[in-house]
């Protein structure tokens, strides 16, 4: 992965049951596209997302169109995210090593298939107890397929919000098909990843533990507009 010109490098793993739309979310986030013929992931698929945050303090303009100008706490910087879309059918022993050195996790369920939501707690517990991630690793819980909410919803927004709050996750409902809320959900996750990285840098220079930012409990949000 080319790291030239980037201030931060992140690895994000997409997890969740088959058919929930992980690959479609990866494609929407990295290429702003939707492929109706996309199939379930049979091997690890990768994608890159380069994001410019804040306004440059020089006369140079950011060279990506989707610049996040108003993220709190953040000065101008560039972050590159390496997205790992892991195959659901892998055995547990083969799957968990994918989470080594992970900066964040995107855990996806389908709001039109209740069983995918009911499996979230077990999946998250396995990930958190596998010894591959830190307790501070941000988790974004995504209820996908919002475009079908009016006719096929089986999981309410409140249920998703309550589970995210219980597990200390960021929460969003989105649609990989239309792009609804995908960018905004990533914006919140990116902010948490950068906060974690800056805190690590700060603590490496100090003997005592001091939080960089007092943001209160883990951020949960129920509705965000693009």
UniProtKB/TrEMBL annotation:
The keyword Hydrolase belongs to this UniProt entry's keyword annotation: yes
Q: Which UniProt keywords apply?
A: Hydrolase
One example of the protein's molecular function in GO is: GTPase activity
| Gene3D superfamilies assigned | P-loop containing nucleotide triphosphate hydrolases
Entry's transmembrane regions: none
Domain of life here?
Answer: Eukaryota
Alphabetized NCBIfam families for the sequence: small_GTP
Name the protein family: Belongs to the small GTPase superfamily. Rab family.
Q: What is this protein called?
A: P-loop containing nucleoside triphosphate hydrolase protein
| Taxonomic path | Eukaryota, Fungi, Fungi incertae sedis, Mucoromycota, Mucoromycotina
